[in-house]
Amino acid sequence: MRDKKNFKWIWFVAARYIFRKQKKSPSVVLSVLGIATGVLALIVIISVMNGFQLGFIESILEISSYHMRIGSVPVERIEEAREALLDVPGIDAVLPFLEFQGIIRGRRRGQQAALVRGIPADAPMMDPGMAARLEFDWGSFDLRERYDALVGAGLAMQLGVGIGDEINIFSISSIFALGADASEDGAGSRAFTVTGIFRTGFLEYDMGWIFVGMEAAEIFSEGDPVLGVKIANRFHDRRMLELARRALEGRPGFEAADFSSWRDYNRAFFGALRTEKLFMFILVGLIFIVVALNIYQAQRRMLLERREEIGLLRAVGGGEKAVRTIFILDGAIVGLAGAVLGLIPGLLIALNIAPFFYGVETIVNAVIDIINTAVLFFGADAIGDFAVFSPAHFFLVEVPSRVIPSEVVLIFTFGFLSSLLAAWIASRRVSRILPAEVLRYE
Q1: Which residues have CB under 8 Å from 195's CB, separation 6+?
Q2: How far apart are CA 87 and CA 156, in angstroms?
Q3: Pick from 123, 219, 210, 122: which is nearest to 167 by CA?
Q4: Long-range CB contacts (< 8 A, 24+ apart) of 233-240?
Q5: What is the pTM of this model?
Q6: Per DSSP, what are the bridge partners of residue 167?
């Protein structure tokens, strides 16, 4: 009961200091706004970075490298391998594919290099995850005919082709093997009909990938198909690799099969994305350090201004820890208020990033229209419209954003603790204030 009463007077004094004694100084308001700005900026920036990075990573894993790959599988045993792997708990999809480097020629003059991947016509049923990442601007996933092709949106633009147009695919290996004769007599070359133009959100694939049927790919590729495997949790790839080996071991024809996981592909790219995110977190997090220094200086000034009050509190029985708690509570209030004020708008913007940018563009363009009205009145040239991400300069349909709850909690906690830590360090000066010296001349 005594501790409860002690806390009541501590809370009363702390609230009085921060809510009634700070009217002459804006330091508390500035500190709260500083923490709110840091929390808001970090949530929005990290969410947009997550949108871009996770979009890239998921495109790579869902379309290109898969969670696991099993190579050197004989063509005649592909279906047997699929059935055996799909019986393993935790494996969601298995898709065979062939790929080769090719030279693509469209209606326009010139040629483009591209990666051509052969997949079954029913690939969307075998691998729904890959199909979900392919957004078709024109046409659909249609590989029913032997020489149908799906072309990336950027590549289709470079080649000047649309739905129903023909493209010629030259196998680079055939060109090297046959030399100039490869293009003269048609060896290593086939005409394909474009049945779909897709977009993945990853520029490399949209500018340099083509999907064709497995039968057509077998004409160009000399190697065995590769099995792309999707698992329920990609971070369990080591355990799933071992289970996949056990499912195929002992079966004739799979002695030379090799197994690899997504960690073996694009290791440098994934590492660069992780480093980029870490450094961005640190750079934006410097806001908290600046605000913490401001809070520290404000608390030190408050201690000096209230030396007499602190001396009186200690003289009437307030212990050193109790008086320190008053100032620590002030820091906690500032930190909590700032973190909450930054959290709410930060989440609203991060979860509605596209409408937010649209609103910014609308406001700016409204101001530009007013300026243009005045400018045209004097006969000067008008200003063009404003776009945050202009399609002329950015390969974006919309700005992606992905909010990860654990990161939001970390940012909120970091903002709160920066204020609390600054107040705790500043409150250590309370031990230097002796009641007898302070009250000697009072």
Answers
A1: 139, 140, 142, 143, 145, 148, 149, 150, 163
A2: 39
A3: 210
A4: 233/90, 234/61, 234/67, 234/262, 236/90, 237/67, 237/68, 237/261, 237/262, 237/263, 240/67, 240/68, 240/88, 240/90, 240/91
A5: 0.71
A6: 192
Per-residue pLDDT tens over the stretch 140-154 = 898 988 899 999 988
Euclidean distance between CA atoms 158 and 65, whole angstroms: 25
Is 5 exposed, middle or buried, given 0-12, 13-18 or 19+ CB atoms closer than 10 A?
exposed
Which residues does residue 209 pair with via DSSP β-bridges, in sequence order? 115
Return the SS3 of 353: helix
Q: Are 231 and 54 in contact (CB under 8 A)?
A: no
**For residue 184, with 0-12 CB atoms within 10 Å meaning exposed, 13-18 middle and 19 or more buried, which class applies?**
exposed
Helices (H), 306-404: 307-315, 320-351, 353-377
| 278-281 contact pairs (CB < 8 A, 24+) | 280/45, 280/46, 280/49, 281/42, 281/46
Mean pLDDT (whole number) for 272-283: 81
**Domain range list for the chain:** 2-55+271-439, 66-265
Q: What is the residue whose two structure tokens read 């290996």?
A: 173
φ, ψ of residue 156 in degrees (nearest 5): -60, -40
Sign, CA torsion 193/195/199/205:
negative
Q: 229 - beta bridge partners?
A: 68, 94
Q: What is the pLDDT of residue 255?
A: 78
What does the pLDDT look like over 178-206, one tens digit per residue? 444 444 444 467 889 999 999 887 888 88
53 touches 222 (CB < 8 A): no
